[in-house]
């Protein structure tokens, strides 16, 4: 292989792919990226065997062929070359030579034939949707994913394809986030809705890589894998093998009390009260009263913080303990300027959402303080 | 109307549980406690072993010298004993709603008014023994009397499998011939002092003027002993009293100066305390170190943690730091060392969406390491898994 490529063309492609490469690998070759040159373009691929990201960028190809290069070092080299640099990459014996201007690098390589490729199996379902819709599905829910929970099926985001919408759900058992995105065209999902649990790392990468514009994304699903492709980029991820809990049963219905609050005011007050809450539990006592939301926290040193936020409230006075972090996550996920809270009592879960939104639901379980 | 208090004391509890579960050990001396050859002590032994003069808290080495070769030595399986204990306490509640467990194998019951339901005190005692036997297949010694002291002394007076009733009118006749040491507050120091005065029985004490006792023992202890000798004592039963502290201590067979042994023993004690605390779902913020120096000089030191814990390592580190901070230790011989945990903290509890929904099996994100370790200990025994430590190569 022997190519020339601009730094400006190479760097964005590299940063798309290199997110998949772990700091420590189970196999040495997983620390490398596969570079394949042909037909005036360079294809770049990285994988951790669970997730594979591939993209393509134009290049001047003198000799086509494939090599692998150490991902981290190659990215750092390209990043630190001056802007506007032209980079030459060529394979020579057991080395990959990278040169630009007066800089020269000789990198080790591993055989390109050994680079693993993910088996997708049959992808029996395919749909096109706006990139921004899919991106929002992940953005609105990813924060509620469980982290390395033994209930492994919670360590990801559930995608559920219904007839005319795609729904995402994440929960760690303490709070739950659900978002639904409308599909341009109805999809035949067979008798019931179709589910896939996208693992946490893939969710993070998708959230990062999906474009915000209204470009179209193709989503393809099989029994064990999912593929998302847009532009020159394709992301293939294994799915979490497990059954997602029936999330609908833990979303409370018919909550009698409704509060409406200015989001930014609530955020400020929560940030202040959180300072004196127990560092470990982050508990804040939230009291819903006529016209005023009261916040109260204290820590093991018996220091105390109190704050109040004006609100519209219809209902009986209720005092509920909450983990501040869970409310903050919701505030950050909500886009409207006012936030709506529905609740029943101190022991049950409450529903939070942006005012007037129909497509998002955030459920938070209280904390007994 | 005098109250009717019952004291229930399981006979050689740990050993009896072992013999119940291992029929081939019945009729043989069974010693529950430290491994023979080690420095530990006997926790409990079966009545077969007691015939050789072995008793609780005796150094295991001494016990082993006295016992015949067919003796069975077992390490305590506290989790199993605790389960049996809970069953016993539960079944006792079918008798009287006022049950106060005072230890794993002892409880007080307020039986006042039960005569109308069950019959005379003897019948109540028989019923208690019967429900325990039916529930867990173990024997208990039971005493009934007008207060806690008399009930306890009554159950102590006939063992094993005893039933003793001391009616209010016979308290004095029951107490008078007893040795001084049965009274609370008369210990290894005071008993010889009283004996030098020619006092040998509770009756002798009773006939002594209060003032003399107060002079000899101090105002407070003197009054207490004086009252007890007359059979006056607390007759209240505190149902399911909240545990004040969890502690574990050990008496060395030979006094110890080696800091490494003290360190390892503290580590063991911290592990035991942590285990019980987690079993009971407790976390405490006060760690107490107890050290007894030769011969009977006892010191306790407490440290308060910033946050409540049930973590073995935290308990150990705190206790070890307390020990190292003390100058009185020097290289003096340590006879007993132990760790206690108190200052219970009720932790905030994050609700679980799935807890009662039946949507998924319950899961908690409590300390999974300890859960796993404790599960292994429950299943295979306490010694199976321990925290390791790096030792410098010797």
Care to describe what's here?
- Chain B: It catalyses: DNA(n) + a 2'-deoxyribonucleoside 5'-triphosphate = DNA(n+1) + diphosphate.
- Chain B: Its EC number is 2.7.7.7.
- Chain B: This is DNA polymerase IV.
- Chain B: Residues 5-187 form the UmuC domain.
- Chain B: Its cofactor is Mg(2+).
- Chain A: This is Beta sliding clamp.
- The complex is a heterodimer of chains A (369) and B (394).
- With 369 residues, chain A is of the alpha+beta class.
- Chain A has three domains: 2-114, DNA Polymerase III, subunit A, domain 2 (DNA Polymerase III, Chain A, domain 2), CATH 3.10.150; 123-249, DNA Polymerase III, subunit A, domain 2 (DNA Polymerase III, Chain A, domain 2, Roll); 257-364, DNA Polymerase III, Chain A, domain 2.
- In chain A, 17% of the residues lie in helices and 45% in strands.
- Chain A has six helices and 26 strands.
- Chain A has helices at residues 7-18, 71-80, 131-139, 200-209, 263-274, 324-333; strands at residues 2-6, 32-38, 41-47, 51-58, 60-63, 65-70, 86-92, 95-100, 103-108, 123-130, 156-161, 165-171, 175-182, 194-199, 216-222, 225-230, 233-238, 257-262, 283-289, 292-298, 304-314, 318-323, 338-343, 350-354, 360-364, 367-368.
- A twelve-stranded antiparallel beta sheet of chain A has the order 14-11-12-13-25-24-23-18-21-20-19-22. In chain A, strands 6-2-3-4-17-16-15-10 form an eight-stranded antiparallel beta sheet. A five-stranded antiparallel beta sheet of chain A has the order 5-1-7-8-9.
- In chain A, β12 (165-171) and β13 (175-182) form a beta hairpin.
- Chain A is elongated.
- Chain A starts with a strand and ends with a strand.
- Chain B has 394 residues and is α+β, with helices and mostly antiparallel strands.
- Chain B has three domains: 1-165, Reverse transcriptase/Diguanylate cyclase domain (Alpha-Beta Plaits); 176-229, 5' to 3' exonuclease, C-terminal subdomain (DNA polymerase, domain 1), CATH 1.10.150; 246-384, 2-Layer Sandwich (Dna Ligase, domain 1).
- In chain B, strands 5-6-1-7-8 form a five-stranded mixed beta sheet. In chain B, strands 9-12-10-11 form a four-stranded antiparallel beta sheet.
- In chain B, β10 (284-293) and β11 form a beta hairpin.
- The N and C termini of chain B lie far apart (70 Å).
- The chains are: A alpha+beta (369), B alpha+beta (394).
- At the A-B interface, β26 of A face β13 of B.
- β26 (367-368) of chain A pairs antiparallel with β13 of chain B.
């Amino acid at each position: 292989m022997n190519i020339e490529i601009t730094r400006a063309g190479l760097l964005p492609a590299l940063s798309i792919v290199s997110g998949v490469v772990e700091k420590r690998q189970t196999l040495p070759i997983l620390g490398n990226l596969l570079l394949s040159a042909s037909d005036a373009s360079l294809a770049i691929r990285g994988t951790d065997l669970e997730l594979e990201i591939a993209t393509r960028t134009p290049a001047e190809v003198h000799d086509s062929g494939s090599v692998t290069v150490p991902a981290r070092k190659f990215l750092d080299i390209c990043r630190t070359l001056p802007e506007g640099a032209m980079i030459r990459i060529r394979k020579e014996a057991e080395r990959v030579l990278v040169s630009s201007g007066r800089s020269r690098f000789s990198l080790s390589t591993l055989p390109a034939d050994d680079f693993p490729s993910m088996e997708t199996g049959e992808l029996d379902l395919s749909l096109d949707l706006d990139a921004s819709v899919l991106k929002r599905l992940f953005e609105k829910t990813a924060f509620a994913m469980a982290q390395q929970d033994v209930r492994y099926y919670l360590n990801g985001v559930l995608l559920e394809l219904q007839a005319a919408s795609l729904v995402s759900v994440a929960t760690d058992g303490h709070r739950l986030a659900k978002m639904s995105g409308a599909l341009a065209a109805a999809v035949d999902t067979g008798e019931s809705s179709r589910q896939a649990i996208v693992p946490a790392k893939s969710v993070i990468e998708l959230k990062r890589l999906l474009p915000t514009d209204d470009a179209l994304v193709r989503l393809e699903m099989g029994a064990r894998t999912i593929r998302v492709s847009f532009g020159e980029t394709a992301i293939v991820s294994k799915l979490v093998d497990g059954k997602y809990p029936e999330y609908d049963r833990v979303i409370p219905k018919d909550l009698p009390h409704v509060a409406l609050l200015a989001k930014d005011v609530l955020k400020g007050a929560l940030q202040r009260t959180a300072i004196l809450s127990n560092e470990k539990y982050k508990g804040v006592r939230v009291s819903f009263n006529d016209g005023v939301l009261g916040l109260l926290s204290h820590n093991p040193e018996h220091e105390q913080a109190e704050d109040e936020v004006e609100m519209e409230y219809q209902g009986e006075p209720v005092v509920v303990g909450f983990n501040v972090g869970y409310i903050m996550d919701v505030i950050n996920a909500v886009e409207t300027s006012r936030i709506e809270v529905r609740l029943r009592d101190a022991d049950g879960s409450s529903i939070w959402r942006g005012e007037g939104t129909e497509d998002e639901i955030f459920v938070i379980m209280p904390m007994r303080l | 109307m005098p109250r009717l208090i019952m004291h229930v004391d399981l006979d050689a509890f740990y050993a009896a549980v072992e013999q119940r579960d291992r029929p081939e050990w019945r009729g043989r001396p069974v010693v529950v406690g430290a491994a023979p050859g080690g420095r530990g002590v006997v926790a409990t032994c079966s009545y077969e072993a007691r015939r050789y003069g072995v008793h609780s808290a005796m150094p295991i080495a001494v016990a082993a010298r006295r016992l015949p070769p067919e003796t069975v030595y077992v390490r305590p399986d506290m989790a199993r004993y605790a389960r049996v204990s809970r069953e016993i306490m539960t079944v006792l509640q079918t008798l009287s709603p006022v049950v106060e467990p005072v230890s794993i194998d002892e409880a007080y019951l307020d039986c006042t008014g039960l005569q109308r339901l069950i019959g005379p005190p003897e019948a109540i005692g028989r019923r208690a023994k019967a429900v325990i036997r039916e529930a867990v297949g173990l024997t208990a010694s039971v005493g009934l009397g007008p207060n806690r002291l008399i009930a306890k002394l009554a159950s102590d007076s006939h063992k094993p499998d005893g039933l003793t009733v001391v009616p209010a009118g016979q308290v004095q006749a029951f107490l008078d011939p007893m040795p001084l040491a049965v009274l609370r507050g008369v210990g290894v120091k005071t008993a010889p002092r009283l004996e030098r005065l020619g006092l040998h029985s509770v009756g002798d004490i009773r006939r002594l003027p209060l003032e003399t006792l107060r002079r000899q023992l101090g105002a407070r202890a003197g009054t207490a002993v004086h009252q007890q000798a007359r059979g006056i004592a607390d007759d209240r039963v505190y149902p399911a009293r909240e545990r004040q502290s969890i502690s574990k201590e050990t008496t060395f067979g030979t006094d110890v100066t080696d800091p490494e042994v003290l360190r390892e023993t503290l580590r063991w004690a911290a592990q035991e305390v942590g285990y019980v605390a987690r079993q009971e779902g407790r976390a405490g913020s006060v760690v107490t170190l107890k050290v007894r120096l030769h011969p009977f000089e006892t010191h306790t030191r407490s440290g308060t943690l910033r946050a409540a814990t049930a973590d073995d390592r935290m308990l150990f580190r705190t206790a070890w730091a307390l020990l190292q901070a003390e100058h009185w230790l020097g290289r003096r011989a340590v006879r007993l060392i132990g760790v206690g945990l108190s200052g219970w903290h009720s932790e905030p509890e994050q609700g679980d969406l799935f807890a009662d929904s039946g949507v998924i099996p319950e899961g908690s994100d409590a300390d999974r390491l300890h859960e796993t370790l404790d599960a292994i200990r429950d299943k295979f025994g306490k010694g199976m898994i321990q925290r390791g430590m790096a030792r410098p190569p010797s």
